Amino acid sequence: VLLVESGGGLVQPGESLRLSCAASGFTFSNYNMRWYRQAPGKSREWVAEIRSDGIGVGYADSVKGRFTISRDNAKKTVYLHMNSLNPEDTAQYYCMVRYVRDYFGQGTQVTVSS
Question: Which end of the chain is more exposed for a tag (fewer CB within 10 A), N or C?
Fold first, then answer.
């Protein structure tokens, strides 16, 4: 299993980013996918989840209404569209799949600062 995140960067408050996670090593379309984040000095936090069929989704209260999770099963990729970013969203963002055990990617850094 390999998960590779990309799309992070430095943005100003109020701006948007789209994160991507390219997956391989398992049948992507059969598995739910999740995004987590971890800020310096804090524990890893669940952000969003999308069901294997792309229809069922769930969000942490802290991002609900601002973030949207989506997936493209043909491209084996899951996305996290982030709008109205604020400094509290600064963190390393990881995608995750539960395939026998939990697998995380290496993460992509998102920094929100003016």
Answer: C
pLDDT at 74 (0 to 100): 97
Which band of pLDDT confidence, cut at 50, 70 and 90, is reported for residue 87?
very high
Query: What is the SS3 assignment for 44?
Result: coil
> Distance (Å, rounded) from C-alpha 84 to C-alpha 63?
10
- Average of per-residue pLDDT across 61-71: 98
Q: Which two tokens stand for residue 91?
A: 């963190």
Checking 24-32 for CB contacts under 8 A at 24+ apart, the result is: 24/76, 25/1, 26/1, 26/97, 26/99, 28/73, 28/76, 29/73, 31/97, 31/98, 31/99, 32/97, 32/98
Quick check: 22 and 77 in contact, CB under 8 A? yes
**Cβ distance 6 to 110 under 8 Å?**
no
What 3 state SS string does 52-84 have? Answer: CCCCCEEECCCCCCCEEEEEECCCCEEEEEECC
Q: How confident is the model at residue 15 (pLDDT cuts 50, 70, 90)?
A: very high
